Amino acid sequence: MLHLRALQSIMVLLGADCRVLEGLQRFSSIPTYLPVNYQVINAESAFFLKEANQEFMRNSSLLSRTEPFFIYQARSMPSVNASYGPLFVEQPVPLELIQNPGAFVASSMFTFNWKVQTFIIQDRIYLSNPRVQVLFYVAGRDWDDYSTIDKLPCVRMFAFHETQEVRGTCQLKGELGLCAAELEPLASWFSPPSVVPGRQ
Ligand SMILES: *[C@@H]1O[C@H](CO)[C@@H](O)[C@H](O)[C@H]1NC(C)=O
Ligand SMILES: *[C@@H]1O[C@H](CO)[C@@H](O)[C@H](O)[C@H]1NC(C)=O
């Protein structure tokens, strides 16, 4: 199942000259939409969506057209182009619409929608073995593209307790882009809170 988290919509406006506009005014009382042809380009896979209860004419007129779409995978900046008769526009999809929070900053070396995921190896730790291990791995990557393996970033993890902090770090690597970071909570963190409840 595809997880349609980043729904995007873009309104494509075509510049039309005044004579065309005057001609169009006559039709403005009839519900209409601009019958443009449109396409997402520079994306490995992208889908136009139809809502189940789509108000088809919503935000549409003879001068504009609104269509939601979802970009599943792209290696470079995707664009949308649209044409209507002799008119043609092409616009890059704004970056903030493409990247989920937590995704790598777009750069030529990463595909879009890469993100670092975490898995906490033990969810309870004890004073006898004060060790937190977290597996980090890259999700959403294009598995055909191994050229980025050497350029994977480091991850840092922080743990806080009251005013104290400990850190762990590791370097994502290999074809799976994973690593495990470890940190050791301080022994005092296992004692009852030193701050009177209500004062922190
Ligand atoms: C969008 O651009 C592609 C590549 O330049 C072209 O083949 C296609 O016909 C264009 N589509 C529209 C709807 O203009
Ligand atoms: C319709 O257009 C208005 C004004 O531009 C915008 O605020 C609204 O989000 C649009 N609705 C959809 C479904 O695109």
UniProtKB/TrEMBL annotation:
PANTHER family: DETONATOR, ISOFORM E, TRANSMEMBRANE PROTEIN 132C. Residues 115-200 form the Transmembrane protein TMEM132 second Ig-like domain. This is Transmembrane protein 132C. The keyword Signal applies. Residues 1-18 form the signal peptide. Keywords: Signal. The lineage of its organism: Eukaryota, Metazoa, Chordata, Craniata, Vertebrata. Residues 36-97 form the Transmembrane protein TMEM132 N-terminal domain. It comes from the Eukaryota.
